[in-house]
Amino acid sequence: MTTTLAPVKAPSWALPISLFSIPLGLAGLGGGWTAAAQLLDAPAWPASVAFGAATLIFAAFTLAYLARTVRPRNGGFHVDLRHPLLGPLTAYLPVIAILLTAHYAKALGAVAPWLIWLAVAGLALNAAALFAHWLKHPLDQNALHPGYFLPVTAGAFIAAIGFVSVDQHGAAVGVFGIGIFFWLLLGAVITSRLFFGSELPLPFKPVLSILLSPPGTASVAWFAITRGAVDDLQTALGGVTLFMLLVQLFFVRDYLRLPFSTQYWVFTFPIAVLGNIGVRYSAGLRFPGWQLAGWVSLTVSSALILAIVVASLRLGARSVTSRRTG
């Protein structure tokens, strides 16, 4: 039997887990500017601002989310974890923690490896709990969406980035392999659902941009593991990323039909990853004009994310004004 995927209202008992796409996108933007500072002699302050904003928002959101979670009547994390649509999004918490710890690893000193291992352990437990729940309570195929890549695919690649930041090369390669395994496994299932299941409702169209995240985060992770080398595997990952970007161009009309909302933040992390690998591929290949190409990639991705930031601030201002006048 085929069911229709219906839009899900944010639970009234907690901060919507989907809002964690905001600090994730900002951390991704910071990662792009970190690459530019290392490879294009870009100033360090944009990365510092992006990561600083991501850290503050992540801390505030986490406190608000967990404060509701600990109240028995409100449910929270454990309710989201078992939700067919929101379940994989619970991996936002450990994934963002890994990215932030990796950025501040030098400042954290000897504590950094412990924090990375702790965050990766949290991600592993989260992914294992999800995987066990899916095995015990089979999902309706139409509940599947590209967000399912987050815990065990994109999350694993981000864990590899975290391990490299604290000089844990073997662990980085190990979790990279886990990401590849689940990318192949889930990729077939999710693609089958998108091909043969019911059409995603228009409000859910932005999740299609997440199809860029597995090859994109794999590329960034492999750059970290190989210290910037463009080897055969990196070239293959670049080819997949480029193809998925071409696919995204055919969704632009659908995306533009959507009224602006916080759902647009789903776009920011894939966009940030594209800017990041644009800088890294340009620097790794060193073709004529590579610096210009790197700057163009970073500028376009930054401009798109900043446009979403500005639109979000305007949306928030209108919401505040309407409440006061109402």
TrEMBL record:
<dbReference type="InterPro" id="IPR038665">
    <property type="entry name" value="Voltage-dep_anion_channel_sf"/>
</dbReference>
<keyword id="KW-1133">Transmembrane helix</keyword>
<feature type="transmembrane region" description="Helical">
    <location>
        <begin position="86"/>
        <end position="105"/>
    </location>
</feature>
<feature type="transmembrane region" description="Helical">
    <location>
        <begin position="45"/>
        <end position="66"/>
    </location>
</feature>
<protein>
    <recommendedName>
        <fullName>Tellurite resistance protein</fullName>
    </recommendedName>
</protein>
<feature type="transmembrane region" description="Helical">
    <location>
        <begin position="172"/>
        <end position="196"/>
    </location>
</feature>
<dbReference type="InterPro" id="IPR052951">
    <property type="entry name" value="Tellurite_res_ion_channel"/>
</dbReference>
<keyword id="KW-0472">Membrane</keyword>
<feature type="transmembrane region" description="Helical">
    <location>
        <begin position="264"/>
        <end position="283"/>
    </location>
</feature>
<dbReference type="InterPro" id="IPR004695">
    <property type="entry name" value="SLAC1/Mae1/Ssu1/TehA"/>
</dbReference>
<feature type="transmembrane region" description="Helical">
    <location>
        <begin position="295"/>
        <end position="317"/>
    </location>
</feature>
<dbReference type="Pfam" id="PF03595">
    <property type="entry name" value="SLAC1"/>
</dbReference>
<feature type="transmembrane region" description="Helical">
    <location>
        <begin position="147"/>
        <end position="166"/>
    </location>
</feature>
<feature type="transmembrane region" description="Helical">
    <location>
        <begin position="12"/>
        <end position="33"/>
    </location>
</feature>
<feature type="transmembrane region" description="Helical">
    <location>
        <begin position="111"/>
        <end position="135"/>
    </location>
</feature>
<feature type="transmembrane region" description="Helical">
    <location>
        <begin position="233"/>
        <end position="252"/>
    </location>
</feature>
<keyword id="KW-0812">Transmembrane</keyword>
